[in-house]
Amino acid sequence: MPGSKLLVALVLLATPWLATALPRPDPVPGGVAVLTLPAGFDAAAQASFAGKPVLTVPVDDGWRALVGIPLGQTPGPAALRLRFADGRTRNIGFTVAAREYPVQRLTITDQDKVTPSAASLKRIEREQVEILAAFRHRSTPAPQLRFAMPAQGPLSSNFGLRRVINGQPRSPHSGIDIAAPAGAPVTAPAPGRVLRVGDYFFTGNTVFVDHGQGLVTLYCHLSSVAVREGQQLVTGDAIGKVGSTGRATGPHLHWALSLNDARVDPRLFLVTETQAAR
């Protein structure tokens, strides 16, 4: 409809982070710092944070670094390390602001999913090697930075929640949960390549998608998987269907996004602020 196209155009013009296709800046633990790089930085230069390569993108007035900030990062001064093609190095300072995430209390009836047995712990240890390797994967293609929602439904758990399961503190929630019904479609939110498909103890049927340069997304608890490793995806392609495999209290999609091996709030990459606020 012409009116809706005009509305989208006006939103893009009024919202700089959308018009330049960059994620919404939120320099907190679990967020993204968008840093302006100095003159002289180009495609041959490199940026790193905490020893890990950082995604850099050209924009109209130079280059930006997109720094994923780990949930465990201590608030306060931080630094991006730059290395230029001629060997020069430079630090770009920025501040990580504090963010207090709420507590979420859950009850899981399968006790092995809360306090795993010795056999389950061995399985978890094996799987962690694969999972961490996927998150740390880095390919050369430049990623698209405007994402759509991979499933339709309200959010049942926000990013960063400090989880207490059956009265026991556990790791923070490193993604968002979308409360879609069992069997609902899960689709690619942006172009990418299927990096890994697996059935894991905690996340059940799981798909990792590589979007390029250290930007990796994760889709968990699927009832079925519709992709194979190495498959190229475009926005809207089927990934699988919503389920409750692994450690889950009911059908939902757990969607996570990793940037330079830091799990960050995927809503920062959504196309519209309306989606990001859901």
From TrEMBL:
Residues annotated as signal peptide: 1-21
Keyword terms of this UniProt record: Signal
Organism: Immundisolibacter cernigliae
InterPro entries tied to this protein: Cell_wall_metabolism_enzyme, Dup_hybrid_motif, M23ase_b-sheet_dom, Peptidase_M23_N
CDD domains in UniProt: M23_peptidase
M23ase beta-sheet core domain residues: 172-266
One MF annotation (Gene Ontology) recorded for this entry: metalloendopeptidase activity
Keyword Nuclease: no
Protein name: Peptidase M23 domain-containing protein
Taxonomy, superkingdom: Bacteria
Record flagged with keyword Metal-binding: no
Ranges for domain Peptidase family M23 N-terminal: 27-97
Pfam families in alphabetical order: Peptidase_M23 (PF01551), Peptidase_M23_N (PF18421)
